[in-house]
Amino acid sequence: MNSAKGSGVFGTVPGVIGPGVIGAAGIGGGGGGAREPSGGHDASASGSGPINMGAMGLGGPGVLYFDPNPTTAKLAMAGLRLAGYAVMHAATPEQAVDLCRTHGPAGDRSIVALLLDTATAPAVSAAVLRALVEVPGASDLPGVLLVSRANPTPFPGAEKLPSLKRPFTTPALLKVVRDTIDQLDHPNHPPPAKLARARQAPDDAVLRLEIALQQFFPDLEPDTETLRRFLGMLNSMSELPRPAAGVTVQAELGAARLESMLEMLDADGARGVLSIERDRVRMRLHVDRGRIRMAEVEGSDGGGDLQAELGLGRYVIELGTMSAAEYDRIAAAEDARQRPIGVRLVEDGALRLDDLSQALCNQAREVVCHVIGWPSGRMSFAPSEDLHPVVVRLARGRGELRISEALLVALRRQDEKAEMGPHMAGLDEVYVRVDDEVAKLGRHAFSRDELGVLELLNGRHSVKDIARRTRTGTFAVAKVIYRLGRSGLARRRTPTVRT
Question: What whole-number distance in Å separates Cα of residue 434 and Cα of residue 457?
Fold first, then answer.
């Protein structure tokens, strides 16, 4: 920003506009006087008389602002008016001259400064400046040029005038206008009250917020601190929730995919806990250098089926080393040391370490298969070198589940679900076996899991009931029912129609 001093900034710089622009005459002449056009006001009228600040009823220093571009003028005018200035905008040279004659030093003396845009049309702005300083007394007014960065000297002599380069902020504009007016050190145009408040808050965002509020609530005059708090509240509402302490990666399911997150953790060899949440359910996968060591299941889906399907008990029982009754008895018993159920089973001799390791791997695989199909939810990863106590005990176990294997099984299951399509059994659907067709084949034609499901296809048990009774997953039951249904050995139960 350039600066110049004198009683009238535009009038005390000789030769501002050269012959090649609008003519050979300089601005303000050697003696600082302005030429009086025929029929104009007496130049002496611009003497030392007081400048009328309230002649227009606007209550603030008047600024004549010439800018032929309404778009660029809008924000500058709003900022100046909001700061307490009475801005008189001129879009054409004729309007600028008329406003200066009416409200300048030879008129009601409302105008105390000139603000000219030269970025849009430098030659036109030079002509306007020449015409303005020829208005009686206007050569004594301070002024500021708004210039482009590509052309900071739009006409000869402009480098000696106060200027502000576009694009600029509202606080920068207020500062250069105030500083330019202060050069005259005139007692009749002190800083307006709003400008004093604006100078205490040079934040452009706060001023823009005040400008926006004034457009919709013109009677509202909040103080700067209130505007700061309001702006902070708006910013906090627009920001994404910050990750919890320790969380380094967080994403929304739907916008991001679980397989992508696991693939990234596998490639980075990360160690920590990956949490997947939806509604009242939370799954945790303990990741360790490309492997999933164990999974945790918290919460409920409302019917208690989630714990039955994904809880550790199912996978311990499926190994055949412990009965369901024995597991339920141990799990229901209180433990004075509050040990995890897996540690209790091993330390109390009910389960071998290798068997627990295998059961946890099977559970983790099913958890991945379950959550990979969630259409919504949130996942977050928190790195940690401190492993879960169960994982520490499993360091000597033989069970191992690689992330790549879990993803392969989960994606394969997604394809199987897509193949079954509308024929896939729903969790609450009830099926009945076709006894005549089953009898024709005999028991030897069915596998063990198919026989277990067939016995419960009696029209009274839903798919999730069968999964709970057989200690298998709902997807495994749905696959068996799909095969039986497509073979004509089972069908959906049809409700009885009463007449």
Answer: 9
